[in-house]
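We emphasize that the prediction below concerns an isolated chain of 293 residues; any contacts that depend on oligomerization or on bound cofactors are therefore not represented. The input was used exactly as deposited, without trimming of termini.
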Amino acid sequence: MYKMKSFKQYLKEAPPAWTESLSTMLFDLPRAGYKDVKIPLSPAIFKRIWQDSIRSKVFHLTDFDGIKNLKKMQGKKKSISAFYNIAVDRIDYGIQTEGGYVVEMDADVLVAAPDDIGSQPDKTGRRWLTWSTILNMGGNKIKKMEKDLKELLMDLIMKYADDPGKSGMPDINKAWGKLGKEYKSDGKGKSLIIKDYIDGMEKIMKKYSTPLQSIFKDYTKKRTLDPDEDSGEVEDWDELVVNNFKIIKIHVGPTYAEDFEDDDDIEGFSFETYNDEGDIADYITRTVQRIKI
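Result of the prediction step, given as a token string:
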């Protein structure tokens, strides 16, 4: 049976430290207006819409403290960013953290893309993509979804705004931001809006499940980065959004390799040290080439 979750069920996870609150994220449309509307990458929603998940070997770049956090998150619904490909210099330099440690894992892949798609976690650990990002990934095959997104925002504005006639309509961007300010101090009212927002997004995603599945999952079959047609440059990394992962091994770059000369494991996980980041990159490439989806 296809069931929606209660609002409280949406709020059961602990936040990454660098995130925004969900209410701030949803009501803030800073640059492109409704193009910046956030789409939830909720594992529970994905499971209800696409019952079969893709299990794949992936890699995650982190620092030493990040390994401790990953250990706690194993097998959980909370999602993280991972990759199939990464530039050699990024291994030590890092992406969201200082880097130096590449964690090899098996994981359920929610979204896969050949570049950094800027997935953003809220304080519950759930990740979101902007509509503009999904539109760029899918082009014409998903463009019709934009009308449904606008209608969802209009419906919520008309339902919850104290005076819809003075809300700023028909300017959806202005009216949506004004609704967020109206309910800024009303926790209960705000929670009802957020629940309706997420439920509405799930219905829209279910309606467009076929093109969305292609957009979110097709790159798991390709797993290679192509040069830009104009510049010839290749992205520094691709991005996967994954959850329910199991750590296989930790690969330690040369900056920190000497720290583990006398150790048998790192936080209970097997590890290998390297004298050159290029050797880690080569291992990643060979491993990814052998993946079968």
